[in-house]
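Put briefly, the fold is written as integer tokens. One such record reads:
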Amino acid sequence: MAKEDFAAFPVIALIMRICGGTGGFSFAKAWGFYADSEYAAGKFKGFSHPYMQVVMIFLGEALVGLVGLFDKKTKHDKFHVKHILRCIVPAALDAAAQTFSNLGIGGELISVQQIFRLTTILFATPLCAIFSDFRDSFAINMKAKIQSLIIMTCAFVVVGVASISFTPVVQPDCGSTAKSMSYVIFSGFLSGLYTISTRMYKSANMHPLTQQSMEGVVGMVLYMLVLPILNHFQLEFPGEWFYRHTHTWYITLNQILFLTAVFTVTLGGYYCSKFTSNLSFQVIEAARPLLVTVVTMIVKFEKPEVKFTLVSLSAQCIIIYATIIHFTEPTTKAKQISEQADALVVGSADTLEINTKTKRKTTKRENSDILE
């Protein structure tokens, strides 16, 4: 049975997306709560490798290309060097966005980090209005889009103030909540630029999964070039990262689960774009912080605190509502006219049927009177 004929497949794709994303960020947060692990002979400290984990994200994204190899229906161009060149700018922006997102995980609640990842829409929407390729999509229902952005901005401000004022659990990273939050917001800006940069892919007739995989490979190569510089300035230590994975089993297990989650969320995103509406996809993205909140409370990364929890959950619901407003496409005039015409036809048919029945009844009465 083809995927297109399987009625439940869109639902499965959405589940893959929300569960994969929730799992990925939960596993990323888990490293900070583990006991200090050995990073050199007889030396122990907490796991903190936000830069190396970006390489792992690109590896998880690169693996989805294997799925594309089994898709024999979709025709695409043969591989050319120009395809790699098209990936450089998007991969660089994605790498920068993922880096700042990872830097923002340690110093704040993961649910708050997930909420502020949604700030991407605040930056992507104005950028769409600037670039001609996306201007038409911005012009559709523009008033509702502006209203939704205002609502979202207010919700983000409320969550930010609440998080800084009374974060209920001390986070494993020494960075402040405000600093971590600023990292994630800047990541949202870079993600907005990344969204615009992917227009380069339009001219390439390639399978989307192959394109995503190629971007992942290019991202890994770019990051490998940057790692020696980060090591020189003592910002990242790849040697320590490798040592931990060869000497601590739970670090390795967490890494495998993390890669699986990245693979799942990436593949789920592809199938969502293919089998579900953009509105459904965006609502699932906006709802992810709710699931993250529940999961992290269950595993005790977060503790329920009446004031903060109520503010956070309320803001998340408001953001979901604003997302629905933002991505709901209005009914076109042509469709409205068609629906009105159908209604008139149905109404005329009903009227004709009623008149016919009335006429028959009248005729019967007249005939009855004549017989009498």
The radius of gyration is 27 Å. The chain has two domains: 8-39+47-330, 334-372.
